[in-house]
Amino acid sequence: MEKHKRMRKLEVTIDRFPIAGKFTIARGSRTEAVVVTATITEDGAVGRGECVPYPRYGETVEGVAAAIEALRPQIEAGLTREALQTTMPAGAARNAVDCALWDLDAKRSGIRAHVTAGVNRWPPVTTAYTISLDTPEAMAEAAAKALERPILKVKFGGPGGDLERIAAVRRAAPEATLIADANEGWTEETIGSHLAACADAGYALVEQPLPAKEDEFLRGIARPVPILADESVHDRAGLDRLVGLYDVINIKLDKTGGLTEALALADAAEALGFSLMIGCMVGTSLAMAPALILAPRARFVDLDGPLLLAKDREPGLTYEGSIVYPPQPALWG
């Protein structure tokens, strides 16, 4: 009998989802999430993965879509997740393909992705909710409107006023767990006063206070608040350098290049004594779903992307306030 031959097809699309209002960080503002979706079909099974190209890392939507298209011959010939890791560099393009292959494997085998990843229990988790960078008054107003959300991730790093912003958000949300995210927006001259202000206001964590290229400065300063690496960490390469600079690392699948490397990075980071945050770019539920596999081992979860959108994919993840539930198979995995 002739051996069954795989018939794979790849589809790459650029999809746009409006953001509810405006999302602002130290590097600028956006009013829509533009994502690249990879869909791989094989023998009637369909696997999907979404990525969010990020200009900070030299990515464009068109460039990422083209990189995936360039891999079409290998993908349609049966490229495996393991081979993908050495075929594409870490980044958004590989993330979309890797997550699509995870989803395809789950759909073909009937074995949920979290089981394949070695996660026995996949409970709902509480995600942080983002307060965009704005004036102290506007940020305080946004925090006051989010009092039902127990964890707020607050964007800083704007021109002037961060000390006032830090205090204003705490006054508006006295009971919330607060995470300060400077998005590389502080300097060697300002970091001491800003960390002290965060400590005085009872912030739980400060994320990426300095530019990644300047973070060696962190080695010699007092840290009254734990410091989290985001832009300074992508995959396992260079992780050793971060020991002594950071206490926590932010794992984002668009940086690691997919779930496969994210799981390996989590293992390596924990072995070095780092705690974990599982984070995201502003994308849809399809981008959050594979990241949720890492959530049970994380100190903090920041997967609120769909909560910031005016319209999500359907079907999407289920959010009850800040509690997010694992995906149904119709979405992913």
What secondary-structure arrangement, pairings included, does this model have?
Elements: E1 8-25, E2 28-42, E3 45-51, H1 61-70, H2 72-76, H3 81-87, H4 92-109, H5 113-116, E4 125-126, E5 129-131, H6 136-144, E6 151-155, H7 162-172, E7 177-181, H8 191-200, E8 205-207, E9 227-229, E10 248-251, H9 253-256, H10 259-271, E11 275-278, H11 285-291, E12 300-301, E13 319-320, E14 323-324
Parallel strand pairs: 5-6, 6-7, 7-8, 8-9, 9-10, 10-11, 11-12
Antiparallel strand pairs: 1-2, 2-3, 4-14, 13-14
Low-confidence stretches: none
* Secondary-structure class: alpha/beta
Shape: globular
Read across the widest sheet, the strand sequence of neighbours is 5-6-7-8-9-10-11-12
Q: Can you identify the CATH superfamily of the largest domain?
A: Enolase-like C-terminal domain
* Number of β-strand runs: 14
CATH class of the largest domain: Alpha Beta
Distance between the termini: 32 Å
At CATH's second level, what is the architecture of the largest domain?
A: Alpha-Beta Barrel
Main sheet attributes: strand count, strand direction, barrel closure: 8 strands, parallel
Note the run of SSEs as H and E: EEEHHHHHEEHEHEHEEEHHEHEEE
Helix content range: 25-40%
Write down the overall mean pLDDT.
94
Per DSSP, the total helix count is 11
Strand content: 15-25%
In CATH, the topology of the largest domain is named TIM Barrel
Rg (C-alpha, Å): 20 Å
Organism: Microvirga subterranea
Cofactor: Mg(2+)
Active site: 155, 252
Protein name: Dipeptide epimerase
Provide structural commentary.
InterPro entries: DgoD-like, Dipeptide_epimerase, Enolase-like_C_sf, Enolase-like_N, Enolase_C-like, Mandelate_racemase_C, Mandelate_racemase_N_dom. Its EC number is 5.1.1.-. The protein is α/β, with parallel strands linked by helices. It folds into two domains: 8-111, Enolase-like, N-terminal domain (Enolase-like, domain 1), CATH 3.30.390; 125-324, Alpha-Beta Barrel (TIM Barrel). Helices cover 29% and strands 23% of the residues. It contains eleven helices and 14 strands. The protein has helices spanning 61-70, 72-76, 81-87, 92-109, 113-116, 136-144, 162-172, 191-200, 253-256, 259-271, 285-291, and strands at residues 8-25, 28-42, 45-51, 125-126, 129-131, 151-155, 177-181, 205-207, 227-229, 248-251, 275-278, 300-301, 319-320, 323-324. The strands form three sheets. An eight-stranded parallel sheet has the order 5-6-7-8-9-10-11-12. Strands 1-2-3 form a three-stranded antiparallel sheet. Helix 1 (61-70) packs across helix 4 (92-109) and helix 6 (136-144) packs parallel to helix 7. The longest helix is centred in the N-terminal third of the chain and has 18 residues, at 92-109. The radius of gyration is 20 Å and the shape is globular. It starts with 7 loop residues before the first strand and ends in a 9-residue tail after the last strand. The model has no long low-confidence stretch (mean pLDDT 94).
